[in-house]
Automatic annotation (TrEMBL):
InterPro entries: EboA_dom (IPR047715). This is EboA domain-containing protein. It comes from Oerskovia rustica. It comes from the Bacteria.
Length: 259
């Protein structure tokens, strides 16, 4: 598995897991709520469950980038980023072996609605980015995170699948799972801009899978998504002609409106 470069490269979009994702986006009241909530979690880890559930009402559900990602599918929403901050606070309040954190994140994901599940996944991204370039996540957290990401990648909610292909996935999903995650986004019509570390991890096997997918779609008389050309240059386009690499159009599909 190729280790992706998760540094702040020029042009890399801000996602909900980035430490500065909320910079300048919250009102004073919203920022005060989040600071208080993070303080509560640091003092009492058990309070995280309630704060994670309330994040949407407290800071809102607006996209982090309304112009390029109106529904917040690709890079997340205000409440995604707030929940990611809460996960980081929770990690700091628990033993460093990660066992308790892994258990709490798993329970929160399993019991939560779609936004709370996205928040856990974006929180794993935040922990991954907070540890770069040398610190690694505890094995227990990595095991739990890969299990949760695998569950999210079986879902049909675009925002949940997109949240499962961020920096944590780039660093920790095995090649087989990661390739299938990328191809699922193509199938769902979600822009590959959602995928962290795409250029570093894309390989010949992913290109082969994308070309096979394109051939099957063409044989069935169905449209071949533009993003196929991004991971398999030369694959037939929607008309059946070979294509050159193109920049995909951002998916504007709406995601779950759960609270």
């Amino acid at each position: 598995m190729t280790t992706p470069d998760l540094t702040d490269a020029p042009g890399r979009p801000t996602t909900a897991g980035d430490p500065g994702a909320l910079a300048g986006l919250l009102t004073d009241e919203q920022a005060a709520w989040l600071a208080t909530a993070c303080g509560d979690v640091a003092a009492d880890p058990g309070s995280a469950v309630g704060h994670l559930a309330r994040a949407g009402r407290a800071v809102g559900r607006t996209s982090l980038d309304p112009d390029l990602d109106p529904a917040g599918v690709l890079h997340g929403t205000l409440d995604d980023a707030a929940r990611a901050r809460l996960v980081v606070a929770l990690a700091g309040a628990l033993p460093p072996d990660g066992e308790s954190l892994a258990t709490r994140l798993t329970e929160t994901y399993q019991r939560g609605d779609t936004p709370e599940r996205r928040g856990v996944l974006r929180g794993l991204d935040a922990l991954t980015l907070a540890g770069k370039p040398s610190d690694t996540l505890p094995p227990a957290v990595v095991r739990a995170g890969t299990t949760l990401a695998a569950d999210a990648l079986r879902a049909n909610d675009q925002s949940l699948v997109a949240a499962a292909v961020g920096p944590f996935a780039a660093a920790h999903l095995d090649d087989h799972a990661w390739r299938h995650a990328v191809l699922k986004l193509v199938f769902m019509g979600v822009s590959l801009d959602a995928v962290a570390g795409l250029d570093d991890r894309a390989d010949d096997e992913l290109a082969r899978m994308a070309r096979d997918f394109a051939a099957e779609r063409r044989a069935a008389g169905r449209v071949v998504p533009d993003d196929v050309a991004r991971i398999a240059p030369g694959a037939p386009d929607r008309t059946g002609a070979p294509t050159l690499p193109t920049v995909p159009t951002i998916s504007l599909a709406n995601h779950s409106k759960d609270a």
